[in-house]
Amino acid sequence: MKPRLLIADDHTLFNEGVKQLISDHYNIVGQVFDGKDVLTIVMVTRPDVILLDINLPSINGFDLATELRKSFETIKIIFLSMYTEPRFIEQSKQLKVDGYLLKNSTKEELILGIDSVLNGENYYDQKLNQLRPSPHQDDFFVKQFSLTPREIEIIRMIKDGMNTTEIAEKLFLGLETVKTHRKNIYFKLSISKLTELLKFALDNNI
Amino acid sequence: MKPRLLIADDHTLFNEGVKQLISDHYNIVGQVFDGKDVLTIVMVTRPDVILLDINLPSINGFDLATELRKSFETIKIIFLSMYTEPRFIEQSKQLKVDGYLLKNSTKEELILGIDSVLNGENYYDQKLNQLRPSPHQDDFFVKQFSLTPREIEIIRMIKDGMNTTEIAEKLFLGLETVKTHRKNIYFKLSISKLTELLKFALDNNI
DNA sequence: TAGTCAATCCCCCTTTCGGGGTATTTTATC
DNA sequence: GATAAAATACCCCGAAAGGGGGATTGACTA
User: Fold this and answer.
1) Is B135 or B164 the better-scoring residue by pLDDT?
2) Nearest CA of chain A to the CA of B100: how many Å?
């Protein structure tokens, strides 16, 4: 009996490609392309393990992992992401996510990771431990616009509808600090209005 | 004789997955995972068409396309990217890149795009043209939220980044009139902030 | 003809944004 | 130990957004 696996990634080609690659090893019980569909599909298909992208439309991987941990505590969760940012790793561990694999892994590494997690182990890609911040590992947009991690974090919170005051409270920062970050973001992106920032964030799945 | 195709993408899983997906249709003569290897491999394998990621290590897709156009002018170049940034599309067209496909396409769209390019056509994903829904598709919103035509018109203008003053000028209305419309929209949608309106507009393709 | 509703406009007010500075501390890197 | 980058924080100011109230006109209609 092959383990039941669910793939959640909004890039159809990637999602489909991974399915092809590992369908000999696992029973692919579903494919999801939007964050808002994940919980429903999980409820219906009851997978043993879910390969979860972090940058999903509607609901991001972290929020989904939080919900999944509440409602389906036996399901193994593995992040399959391109991001190597330490704070992502940290957050994943805090959320008790079982594994963290990188999109530039090989098929063999992917299968090894999934099997390890199914065996009850935690599996975080070794590359995550030997992180040297080399420029070409960063997201292209971060490089293009020189956005810092903090700035990206704040962009996400703005996108989620929070105002400057709320962001300051949540991050335990002063109001003026967040304002400064906002100003720097606007300058770097050469924009001047909230709507333009929203458009940028949504265009680029930030 | 199947067309000779080269895949250049640093995400091993994606690269491998795409190969699996389309190896029935094309002769995959090579896979590259780093920008600095592309020109060498192209010289050796002489593909008819190359699927090129934009965000590659060492050398990015644009620089590679520029070089490829100089040295191998008959090779068809197709960007396969997650980015929908207009400036990327612009730059691609300027570089005479033959196609631009998105990673959230289906297998069928991918093959259609490649075949079109091989037939000598240009193929830029239709999603890139940001098609505006026709004004006659508003019935749903009118019924669901009792939004009037004027209100929908103003929602669109807000979404496009215009502020209240600009909208008033463009519609030859008083500032207070547009403010009233905004208040009514917020009331009908049970929202209170611009970001929520943007989210609504994008969720519902307004 | 009385009632409803979309569209127009005006007053009040507070909060938030956006843009112009400047400055300190922390962290990473050389 | 020097330097650079990131993150933190503050000042001032005008513009814009948001929320409360009310009012008029015209069109359609029950």
Assistant:
1) B164
2) 14
